[in-house]
Amino acid sequence: SFDAHAGAVGAGICERVLVANLGTSAVDMMIERAERLRDRRMTYACGMAEDSILPGYMGIEAGQSAFGDVYAWLKRFLIWPSEQFGDEKTRRELSEKLLGELTRQAEALDAGSALPALDWFNGRRYPYADEFARGAIAGLSLGTEPPQVFQSLVFATAFGWKRIVDSLSREGLAIEKIIAVGGIAQKSPYVMQTMADALERPISVSASAQACARGAAVFAAVACGAYPDMFTAQKAICEGYVSEYIPDAARKVSSGGIAVLGRTQDESGRNG
């Protein structure tokens, strides 16, 4: 089992549940019986591995090669002058406060006027992996300020994720619940609420701060005979949820025009 796959188990993955591991990158995982995937067009997904997530199932994986790393890039970009010319105390204070202040101001901006952006800053994992693909921000002007750029990057990652979820649904994979794990899920209400609004679906956040280790414990508990099967072990060992983000209907109308640049790509990744 891969580390992220164990994290899906530790978060409580089962049939009709999508687990999103949201950290520096994003990994989206589901399970399905192999016979139900016949004649499905799954070639755009990052990969499928039989028995990797749960025994007896095909593990389905997609994701974004940069997620939190996109926000970290903007932070590094903005604090560059202080790293070159500032003292250590100034650098530390700026580093600690910057993303919090960007978040506060970005939350107050009108979602409908957000700059179009594409989240392929570290190449593209989906659709069709391409390590040479690159991100973009359009509509910049001399009046553009950092909170607007941060807002555009949050929307780019959120709508990039929406594209993955929508594609899995179009292929007939029933998604009745979404569980998020990882640093972004635990630490950024702004990003998580934006994602819930973009998807128009509730997102539950796993209470586990170490979902991968907890999933490994589930595997070990079944392997040594402490529990008869994976689902029984999950019920006993997994921690449940620390919060849930509900889509905000008031934001639905104003978010309709976001990520236009991302929608100019067809499913092969070619410009449309």
Order of helices and strands: HEEEEHHEEHEHHEHHEHH
Q: Which regions contain 5 or more consecutive residues with pLDDT less than 50?
A: 253-272
Distance between the termini: 37 Å
Radius of gyration: 19 Å
Report the strand count.
9
Sheet/helix structural class: alpha+beta
Average the pLDDT over all residues and give the rounded result: 89
Count the DSSP helices: 10
Query: Rough shape?
Result: globular
**Approximately how much helix is present in the residues?**
40-55%
Q: Report strand %.
A: 15-25%
The largest sheet is: 7 strands, mixed
- Strands side by side in the biggest sheet: 3-4-2-1-7-8-9
Topology:
Elements: H1 3-11, E1 17-22, E2 26-32, E3 47-50, E4 58-64, H2 68-85, H3 88-107, E5 117-118, E6 136-137, H4 146-170, E7 177-181, H5 183-187, H6 189-199, E8 203-206, H7 211-223, H8 230-237, E9 241-245, H9 249-252, H10 260-263
Parallel strand pairs: 1-7, 7-8
Antiparallel strand pairs: 1-2, 2-4, 3-4, 5-6, 8-9
Helix pairs in contact: 1-7, 2-3, 2-4, 3-4, 4-6, 7-8
